[in-house]
Amino acid sequence: MQLPKKLKHFNFFLDGDNFVGQVNEITLPQFMRKMEEYRGGGMYAPIKTDHGLEALSMEVTMGGLSFEFFGHFGLCQHDGITARFTGSFAGDDKCEALPMEIEITGRLSEMSLPTAKSGEDTEHKIKIEVSYIRILYNGSELCEIDIMNMVEKWQGKDRLEDHKRNIGA
Predict the structure, then answer these.
(1) How far apart are CA 5 and CA 97, in angstroms?
(2) Which NCBIfam families match (predicted)?
(3) N or C: which end of the chain has fewer CB within 10 A?
(4) Per residue in 15-45, pLDDT tens?
(5) CATH class for domain 6-167?
């Protein structure tokens, strides 16, 4: 029997700056298909048709106040920043730490300032709208999504390869 591999440690980087010890929590992107109901003549019930992915975003909750983000807010490029999440996963049944890395390009869409209360802990959040994401786990690529270059890879298989060829992209 195996125990689940749990996140034991993580770190966050933004444009190469290391935020070790400053990040309380990261909400990683949620992958959701854009599905629409369709029922044509002769169909007994509707089915959901796939129209690609919903927009991807990531939230980072920082302890205290980090002024480094002010220079990144309002950039006009969809891929104006590069963020990186690194994690170390392990199960309590083996003495084996497995690496995970998530690389993202995007832009900041939200930046909250902390609530100010004397003598109390503070935290603030940033939200990153994702235009590119690549997830590696223990050296294997789990996924790569490149919205502008029409890439949607899951475990090495590009689901958009035929469509790109058909439109000459």
Answers:
(1) 9
(2) tail_tube
(3) N
(4) 999 999 999 999 999 999 999 999 999 999 9
(5) mainly beta
DSSP secondary structure string, the chain? --PPPEEEEEEEEETTEE-TTTEEEEEPPPP-EEEEEE--TT-SS-EEEEEEEPPEEEEEEEES--GGGGGGBT-SSTT-EEEEEEEEEE-TTSS--EEEEEEEEEEEEEEPPPP--TTS--EEEEEEEEEEEEEEETTEEEEEEETTTTEEEETTEETTHHHHHHHT-
- With CA atoms as reference, report the closest residue to 142 among 83, 87, 114, 101: 101
- Is 106 exposed, middle or buried, given 0-12, 13-18 or 19+ CB atoms closer than 10 A? buried
